[in-house]
Specification:
The structure is a single chain. By secondary structure, the chain is mainly beta. The protein folds into 2 domains: about 350 residues, Neuraminidase (6 Propeller); about 80 residues, Immunoglobulin-like (Sandwich), CATH 2.60.40. The protein has 3 helices and 40 strands. The strands form 10 sheets. Strands 7, 8, 9, 10 and 11 form a 5-stranded antiparallel beta sheet that branches. β24 and β25 form a beta hairpin. The chain is globular and about 75 Å long. It starts with 14 loop residues before the first strand and ends with a strand.
C-alpha cells in the first residue's frame, strides 16, 4: 500500500492503510489490432491517447495494408479510431511522446522486413521510420525521418524524449540482417524540420555470438541531455543493462549492471529509476549522479514472457510500475520513496498489462489487453487515513518522513476547522499548508513541524531528498 502523509491538529500521526480501488474496465479498441505493445500518454488538459496498428495478418511475417490509429479519452469515454496513416506495405513499432510544447508526436516503421522485402510492390513510398505531430487538432503529413534503404536498418520500436535545453530526441531499436538478424540501439535529434542522421548507442552483429541491442529508453535528465537505457543480449552471457548520457551529438557511458526486460523513468528529485528482471524477480534500481543508490525487489510473481510493461512518475513524485503476473493478471505497484507496495490487480479477468500514465491531479490510468484493449483508473489515490487522539500523541512520538511532497488529508481540515503552517526548528513559518499535495522540494532537508495555528499543537516532519 502506498502511504499518504496526513497531518492533524493534535500532533503526531497514527495511520491505518486505505485500500485503493480500480474502476470497471472501459473498451479502448476492439479485436483486429495486431499484437504490438501500446502505450498511454497524457497531454496538457488531461486527454489520454494511445496508438495501435490495425490490419490483418502478422506484420513481421508478411506484408499487408496497415492502419496506424489513434484513440483518445477527454471526457471519461474512449473515442476513435482516428486513422493517422495508411501503410500499404505494413507498419509496426509505434511510439509516442509529448514535446516541450505539449504536442503529441508519433513514430512508426512502414515497409517490409528483410525476409519479405521481395513480396511488396504495393507502394512506391520509401521504407523507414515515419513521424507525425498533432498540432491545432490535426495530424501533420507523415514525414520520412530515417530511410531504411539508406541505412540498411529496419526499426522495430521507437520512443521520444526532450531535454532541459528543448532538444527533441527519437530512439530506435533497428533490425539489421547479415545472413542472420541482429538489432542495434540508435537515436536521432530533430534539427529544424528534419531528423539528423542516426547515431549508434550500441551496434549489433550476427556473428558468433550474435549481439542484440534493445530499444534505448530516453528519459529527461534534470540538468542537461537525456539518459538512454537499453539492454544488450550476447548469447550465453547474462544480459546487461547500459545507462548512457546523451546531449545532442555527444554520448557517454554512465554505468552498467546485469538485468533484462527493462523500463525507465525519472522521479521528482531528478533521479533515474530502472525497473527490470533479474534472478526470477522484478526489481528496481535508483541512480543518482553516476551511481546506484538503491536496489529493491518489486515482485517475484511476474511473467517473464512480457517483463515490466510500463513505468511512470506521478505529479507527487511517486514511481509506478505495471506488469503481468505468472497467471496472466495485469497488476500495478507504486513506490513513494520507502518501499514498493503490494501489487494491485487492476481487473478480475486475465490479460496483459501494457500502459500506465498519470493525470495532472495524480489519478492513475492503466491499459491492458486481452483480445481487445481496455483501460481502468484508480478511483482514489492510495494513502493513510489518520486516527489521531490525545493518547496517540502522548504514546507515539515518531517523526513523519517525507520526500518532495507533504500530503495533508482534506478530512483533517474539515474535522479540525483550523489553519496549518509548516515551521522550521526556529519556529519560522516556511510554508502555508493546504488540503492535498504541498510541494516541499524547495526546503532544505531537515526537521520541520506541522503546526495547528489555532491550538498551537504540532507534529514533527523530516524532509529528506
Amino acid at each position: 500500500m502506498r502511504r499518504t502523509v496526513v497531518v492533524c491538529v493534535l500532533g503526531l500521526l497514527a495511520a491505518t492503510a486505505a485500500l485503493g480501488q480500480w474502476s470497471e474496465p472501459q473498451v479502448v479498441s476492439q479485436s483486429g489490432v495486431w499484437n504490438c505493445r501500446s502505450q498511454l500518454v497524457c497531454v496538457p488538459g488531461d486527454t489520454l491517447w494511445t496508438f495501435l496498428v490495425r490490419g490483418r495478418g502478422d506484420q513481421m511475417a508478411r506484408i499487408d495494408t496497415s492502419f496506424v490509429t489513434a484513440y483518445w479519452n477527454a471526457d471519461g469515454h474512449w473515442q476513435g479510431p482516428d486513422t493517422v496513416t495508411v501503410a500499404n506495405e505494413g507498419a509496426s513499432g509505434p511510439g509516442a511522446g509529448i514535446d516541450p510544447s505539449g504536442r503529441i508526436w508519433l513514430a512508426w516503421y512502414s515497409g517490409p522486413y528483410p525476409w519479405n522485402a521481395g513480396q511488396g510492390g504495393q507502394s512506391d513510398d520509401p521504407w523507414g521510420t515515419y513521424t507525425t505531430v498533432r498540432d491545432s487538432g490535426r495530424w501533420s503529413t507523415p514525414q520520412l525521418a530515417i530511410s531504411s534503404q539508406v541505412t540498411g536498418l529496419y526499426p522495430t520500436a521507437h520512443c521520444f524524449a526532450a531535454d532541459e535545453q528543448g532538444r527533441w530526441y527519437l530512439g530506435f531499436r533497428a533490425l539489421g540482417y547479415d545472413s542472420l538478424p541482429f538489432t542495434s540501439a540508435a537515436y536521432s535529434t530533430l534539427r529544424g524540420d528534419t531528423w539528423a542522421a542516426l547515431r549508434f548507442i550500441g551496434q549489433g552483429r550476427s556473428g558468433e555470438p550474435p549481439v542484440y541491442h534493445g530499444l534505448p529508453l530516453l528519459v529527461r535528465r534534470p540538468d542537461y541531455g537525456v539518459w538512454a537505457v537499453h539492454r544488450v543480449n550476447q548469447g550465453s552471457v547474462p544480459d546487461t543493462i547500459h545507462v548512457d548520457v546523451i546531449a545532442g551529438d555527444s554520448l557517454a557511458r554512465l554505468l552498467s549492471f546485469e538485468g533484462a526486460g527493462l523500463l525507465a523513468t525519472a522521479d521528482s528529485s531528478g533521479r533515474l529509476w530502472v525497473v527490470f528482471n533479474r534472478d526470477s524477480a522484478l526489481r528496481s534500481v535508483t541512480i543518482e549522479g553516476g551511481a546506484i543508490v538503491d536496489e529493491r525487489v518489486i515482485s517475484t510473481n511476474i511473467s517473464f514472457r512480457s517483463g515490466p510493461a510500463a513505468v511512470c512518475t506521478d505529479p507527487m513524485g511517486w514511481v509506478w510500475a505495471a506488469w503481468t503476473t505468472r497467471d496472466t493478471m495485469p497488476v500495478v505497484s507504486y513506490n513513494w520513496g520507502a518501499r514498493w507496495a503490494e501489487a494491485e490487480a487492476v481487473t478480475d479477468s486475465t490479460g496483459w498489462a501494457e500502459g500506465l500514465v498519470s493525470e495532472s491531479d495524480g489519478r492513475m490510468h492503466a491499459l491492458f489487453r486481452t483480445r481487445s484493449h481496455y483501460s481502468v483508473y484508480r478511483l482514489e489515490r492510495p494513502g493513510i487515513e489518520e486516527q489521531v487522539t490525545p493518547e496517540t500523541f502522548r504514546l507515539n512520538q515518531t517523526a513523519t518522513v517525507v520526500r518532495n511532497v507533504l500530503l495533508v488529508s482534506h478530512s483533517v481540515f474539515d474535522t479540525c476547522h483550523s489553519e496549518f503552517a509548516l515551521r522550521d526548528i526556529t519556529g519560522r513559518k516556511v510554508a502555508e499548508l493546504h488540503p492535498g499535495a504541498n510541494d516541499v522540494r524547495h526546503l532544505a532537508p531537515g526537521v520541520y513541524f506541522v503546526r495547528n495555528e489555532t491550538t498551537a499543537k504540532s507534529a514533527k516532519v523530516v524532509v529528506q531528498r
